[in-house]
Request: fold
Amino acid sequence: MKSPTLNAVYHLLYDTYGPQHWWPGETPFEVMVGAILTQNTAWTNVEKAIANLVSHNRLDAGKIVATRKDHVANWLRPSGYFNVKTERLKNFCRWYLEKGGFRALSRMDTAQLRVALLSVNGVGPETADDMLLYAFERPVFVIDAYTRRLFVRLGLFNGNESYDTMRVDIESILGPETVLFNEYHALIVRHAKEVCRVRPRCGNCVLLDCCPAGLLS
Reply:
């Protein structure tokens, strides 16, 4: 069976779910904070942690850096691994301020900015690409566990590719389209949560007719 194209998968998902209006954040900085806090936890938990920062008037890089670690950790507690995330968030905020904040960082080209983000302790490729795509609106495709699971099941990748190999391959096929990348990733996340789970619900899948793994299940 021939695997579907990346564009075909996108259109099937979009026709099924419609626009997703991602990322859930009111400012670029909030998006970046969310990208750090969402590591190893559900987004509902991140929302609670961000709400705590907002309620204490601390959703600001300078204020986070100036606030005692134990206070920040307590506010981040809902997001899990709160001590580790406090360190990572404070590291990021110090770096963010040293670099001149969002306006200064926005002047970097995408490749330069990606390298800069990856230099921050606690910011890995997925987190950096979340920030690039959703905060800085750069055409970078995010490869998360949902993306890898779906595309491997569809036969588009074999599963052994590195993060950057998958990212570059997808970007080269789809072209540098920020709006498309934004919507596509959001659709993948929704589909993977609702249907293409670790234990997939193939009977309810809009991609079933073009999914080798689903047809074998």
